[in-house]
TrEMBL record:
Keyword Zinc-finger in annotation: no
UniProt cross-references to PANTHER family, sorted A to Z: ALDEHYDE OXIDASE 1-RELATED (PTHR11908:SF132), XANTHINE DEHYDROGENASE (PTHR11908)
Record keyword Membrane present: no
Superkingdom of origin organism: Bacteria
Gene3D superfamilies hit by this protein: Aldehyde oxidase/xanthine dehydrogenase, a/b hammerhead, Aldehyde oxidase/xanthine dehydrogenase, molybdopterin binding domain
One Pfam family from the record: MoCoBD_2
Every Aldehyde oxidase/xanthine dehydrogenase a/b hammerhead domain range: 11-122
Name under which the protein is recorded: Xanthine dehydrogenase family protein molybdopterin-binding subunit
C-alpha cells in the first residue's frame, strides 16, 4: 500500500514543526560558541539590542528558567547541562545566546551583531588523542550498556586466542557521524492558561512532553507535544535538545509563542551525534573455521555506542568471549546520542570485516564461515530465538546475487578501468515489543479512528496503523483515520515513552490495535442492542461483520447506527504488555555487495546490492522495502562518505554543511535489491512483525568494505572508504 501521508507530504500540506505559525509569534535564533573550551568573559549586546525588532536576548547573564534536571537517561543520551547554565564553554558550537525578534530575519541579523569575548583553553576534542587514556563507562541502572561481558566468567581471552590455530587481530575505526535528517530540529511553543503546547518533531511525543516538563519544572500533564509529521529522525529526535527547551522557556518568559529553528550548521553541535569509536577485535578459530575465542574491546566517546553488547554478543557461537567498552569522558565535543542502529552500525562494520579477514586467513568461503558458527540462541544466556531464518537469508541471497561467481582471490576481476569485487555480511538487530495502548473509536460518519501516542518519523507508521486497523475491523482502509504524533493520545507504562525507537514501533503498536479493535467491537455490539434509536435495540445474538452490526434479521452499518442513536463515538482502549522473555527476539539479513574500484583514481562505486531479510511478517511490502533500502543507503553512506571532521586546535566541526558532509540520495544509487522471507513471528505477537528500520544499516558498511577488499586486495579498517585510501 502507498503511504497514506504521501500526498500531504509531496504537496506541502503536511505541516512540520516549523510550518506552524501562531498569532503574536516571535522568533528565536541561537548564537553558538566559537571556541571549544573556555569561559565567556563578556558579551557585547549593544549593537544587537539596538537592531530593529529585537524583543529580548537571553545569555548566561540573562538566563531563561530551567528549574528541573536535564533528564535523558541520566544525561548520558543527550545534553547534561541546561542552556546558559553558566559562562563555561564545553564545546565549539554550544548555545551561548538566544535572540528573540519579531521576525526570523531580525533575530538572525541581531544574533550576528553579538560580540562574545572568551578566555580560551585548548579543547580536548581529538578522539585520536583521547582514546590513548580511556576510562570505564558509567553504569546506568536498568541499562546493560557498558558492562563487561565474559564467557566463561573470568576467561583469559588472550590465552584462548593464543591457543587458537588461526588468529586475526585488528582495529577498526569509525569517525563521528551526524543524523542530518531533512528537517532540522525546530519547535514552536505557546503557553495558554498555564498549559504549554509544543509543535516539535519527535520520535516520542509523550517522552518529549515529559522531558520538557521535567526541565521546565511543570507538570507533565501541562505539556502537550504535537508532532504528526517528522522530517526524519534516525535517533536524533528521540530525546530533547536545546531548540525545544529554548522555545518553551522563552515563550513562558515573554508570554507569547516562540519559534526556534536550528540551522544546518547548528544541527551539527546543538543536537546529538554518533560518537567516534575504535574497536579491537581478536578472533581465534580452528582450521575448520570454528570460532574458539572472540575478544572485542571498544573505546568510544560515549556509553551510547556499545558495539560489544549490541553486536558481538548476538552474532556467532564461541566458547570464549570477552567484551569491554571504555569511554573517553569529558571531551570538548557536542553530546553523543543514539543514531540509527547505535552500537550495531560500528560493531557490525568491525565484526563483519574481521570475519571476512578470518575467512581469508582460513581460505574459507565467508558464508561457510558464518554457517559454521551459526547461533541458535543468544551467545551468553543460550536463550532460544523466537524465529530465526538467517541461514535461509544466506542461501537465498547467494543465489539472487550470484555469489558463486565471486572469485576468492582479490584483485583478479578487471573490467576496463575498474576492479570488480563482491563482499557479504550478516545483519542482526534486536527486536522487541514494549507495552502500549491503542484506542479504536467508531464514528457516525462511518470512519474509525485508530489512535496511539507513537510517531511516524518517515517510517510508514501512518500507513501501518491504517492497514492493520482496516484488517482488524474488516473495513476498507479509507474508512480508518489513524491518529499519532500527539502526547495526549493513548499510551501506557514507561517503556513505550520513547515511541518510535529501536525499530520496535510496528511490533509494539500493531498487536495493541488488534486488542483495541476487539474491545471496541464489543462496545459497539453492546451499544447496538442497548442504545435508543438502534434498529437492533433489544436484539440478541448481534454480531459485528465487516463494519455492519448483524442480527434479528437485519443489519446496519456502524456509521448509520451511531447516527440513528445520536452518538458521537463508541470505542475502547486496548493495552498490550511487553514481549514475554522466554525467547530472544531479533531480525536478520544477509547483505551482498558488488563494488567497482577505479584502477587509476581509487574511486569506489557501488554497482549491485542484494539483501535478504528475515524480519517476521512483512505487514506492508512497500514501506518495509523503503525502510530497508533507506537503512542500507544509510550504512553505505557511512561506508563511503560520512565523517564529521573535528579541527584539533579549536574543536570546530569543519564540514558542517551538505557540500562538505556528503550524503547520497536516491538518485545517486543503483537500485537496492530487497527480498523478504516473511516468516511471521507469532511468538513475538499475533501480527508477527519484528523490527525493520535499523536492520538495513547493520552490516552494510562491512559488505561494502569486504567487496572493496575482494576488488583490490586492500583492507580498509577506517571509515569512510574514500579514494585516497585505495590508491
Ligand atoms: Mo533509533 S537510533 O533507536 O531512533
Amino acid at each position: 500500500m502507498d503511504r497514506i501521508d504521501a500526498r500531504a507530504k509531496v504537496t506541502g500540506t503536511a505541516k512540520y514543526s516549523s510550518d506552524h505559525n501562531l498569532p503574536e509569534m516571535a522568533y528565536g535564533y541561537m548564537v553558538t560558541s566559537t571556541i571549544g573550551k573556555g569561559q565567556i568573559t563578556s558579551m557585547d549586546l549593544s549593537m544587537a539590542r539596538a537592531a530593529g525588532g529585537v524583543i529580548e536576548i537571553y545569555t548566561p547573564d540573562n538566563r531563561l528558567s530551567f528549574p528541573g534536571t536535564m533528564p535523558a537517561l541520566g544525561g548520558v543520551f543527550a545534553e547534561t547541562r541546561h542552556p546558559f547554565a553558566d559562562r563555561e564553554v564545553h564545546y565549539y558550537g554550544q548555545v551561548v545566546a538566544l535572540v528573540v525578534g519579531e521576525t526570523i530575519e531580525q533575530a538572525r541579523d541581531a544574533a550576528a551583531l553579538i560580540k562574545v569575548t572568551y578566555v580560551a583553553q585548548p579543547p580536548k576534542s581529538s578522539f585520536e588523542d583521547a582514546k590513548q587514556n580511556p576510562a570505564d563507562p558509567p553504569s546506568i541502572p536498568g541499562l546493560p550498556l557498558g558492562e563487561v561481558i565474559e564467557k566463561p566468567v573470568g576467561v583469559d581471552i588472550e590465552a584462548a586466542l593464543a591457543a587458537s590455530e588461526i588468529r586475526v587481530e585488528e582495529t577498526y575505526d569509525v569517525p563521528p557521524r551526524h543524523h542530518m535528517m531533512m528537517e532540522p530540529h525546530a519547535a514552536v511553543a505557546a503557553w495558554q492558561a498555564g498549559e504549554l503546547t509544543i509543535f516539535s518533531g519527535t520520535q516520542g511525543p509523550a517522552a518529549h512532553a515529559l522531558e520538557v516538563a521535567t526541565v521546565l519544572g511543570v507538570q507533565p500533564a501541562d505539556v502537550h507535544v504535537v508532532s504528526p509529521y517528522v522530517g526524519g529522525a534516525f535517533g536524533g529526535k528521540a530525546f530533547t535538545w536545546a531548540p525545544t527547551l529554548l522555545a518553551a522557556a522563552a515563550s513562558r518568559a515573554l508570554g507569547r509563542p516562540v519559534k526556534v529553528v536550528t540551522s544546518r550548521e547548528q544541527l551539527f553541535t546543538v543536537t546529538g551525534h554518533r560518537a567516534a569509536s575504535s574497536q579491537t577485535f581478536g578472533l581465534g578459530a580452528d582450521r575448520d573455521g570454528r570460532l574458539k575465542a572472540i575478544k572485542h574491546h571498544t573505546t568510544s566517546q560515549s556509553l551510547v555506542e556499545d558495539p560489544g553488547y549490541r553486536t558481538t554478543a548476538k552474532f556467532y557461537a564461541t566458547p570464549n568471549v570477552h567484551i569491554k567498552l571504555s569511554i573517553t569522558p569529558d571531551m570538548n565535543l557536542p553530546a553523543a546520542t543514539i543514531m540509527r542502529a547505535p552500537g550495531d552500525e560500528a560493531g557490525s562494520f568491525a565484526l563483519e570485516s574481521a570475519m571476512d579477514e578470518l575467512a581469508v586467513a582460513l581460505g574459507m568461503d565467508p558464508i561457510e564461515l558464518r554457517m559454521t558458527n551459526y547461533l541458535q540462541g543468544t551467545l551468553i544466556e543460550g536463550k532460544p530465538y523466537s524465529s530465526k531464518h538467517l541461514d535461509e537469508c544466506y542461501q537465498v541471497g547467494a543465489e539472487r546475487f550470484g555469489w558463486s561467481r565471486r572469485r576468492a582471490q582479490p584483485g583478479t576481476v578487471i573490467d576496463g578501468d575498474w576492479r570488480i569485487g563482491m563482499g557479504m555480511s550478516t545483519a542482526i538487530l534486536d527486536s522487541g515489543r514494549a507495552p502500549t495502548a491503542v484506542r479504536v473509536t467508531f464514528r457516525p460518519n462511518g470512519t474509525a479512528t485508530v489512535a496511539c501516542a507513537t510517531s511516524d518519523a518517515g517510517t510508514g507508521m501512518w500507513t501501518i496503523m491504517a492497514l492493520i486497523g482496516a484488517g482488524a475491523l474488516n473495513i476498507p482502509v479509507n474508512r480508518i483515520k489513524p491518529a499519532l504524533g500527539d502526547s495526549r493520545l493513548p499510551l501506557v507504562g514507561s517503556n513505550d515513552m520513547y515511541g518510535a525507537v529501536g525499530s520496535a514501533a510496528t511490533s509494539t503498536v500493531t498487536p495493541a490495535i488488534l486488542v483495541a479493535a476487539q474491545e471496541a467491537v464489543d462496545e459497539l455490539v453492546q451499544h447496538a442492542t442497548t442504545a435508543e434509536g438502534s434498529p437492533l435495540f433489544g436484539a440478541t445474538g448481534v454480531r459485528y461483520d465487516g463494519g455492519r452490526l448483524v442480527g434479528a434479521g437485519t443489519s446496519v452499518d456502524f456509521g448509520e447506527l451511531l447516527t440513528r442513536t445520536r452518538t458521537s463515538e463508541v470505542g475502547a482502549q486496548g493495552t498490550t504488555a511487553a514481549a514475554d522473555d522466554s525467547h530472544a527476539y531479533a531480525s536478520y539479513a544477509a547483505h551482498f555487495c558488488e563494488v567497482k574500484v577505479n584502477r587509476w583514481t581509487g574511486e569506489p562505486r557501488l554497482s549491485r546490492f542484494t539483501t535478504v531479510v528475515d524480519a517476521g511478517a512483512i505487514l506492508n511490502a512497500k514501506t518495509a522495502r523503503n525502510q530497508i533500502t533507506g537503512g542500507v543507503l544509510f550504512g553505505l553512506a557511512a561506508a563511503m562518505f560520512e565523517e564529521g571532521k573535528v579541527e584539533g586546535a579549536t574543536g570546530r566541526i569543519s564540514n558542517a554543511n551538505f557540500a562538505d558532509y556528503v550524503l547520497p540520495v536516491n538518485a545517486d544509487t543503483v537500485p537496492i535489491d530487497v527480498h523478504f522471507l516473511d516468516y511471521p513471528d507469532t511468538r513475538l505477537s499475533p501480527t508477527g512483525a519484528r523490527g525493520i528500520g535499523e536492520l538495513g544499516t547493520v552490516g552494510a558498511a562491512a559488505a561494502f568494505a569486504n567487496a572493496v577488499y575482494n576488488a583490490t586486495g586492500k583492507r580498509i579498517r577506517t571509515l569512510p572508504i574514500t579514494p585516497d585510501k585505495l590508491l
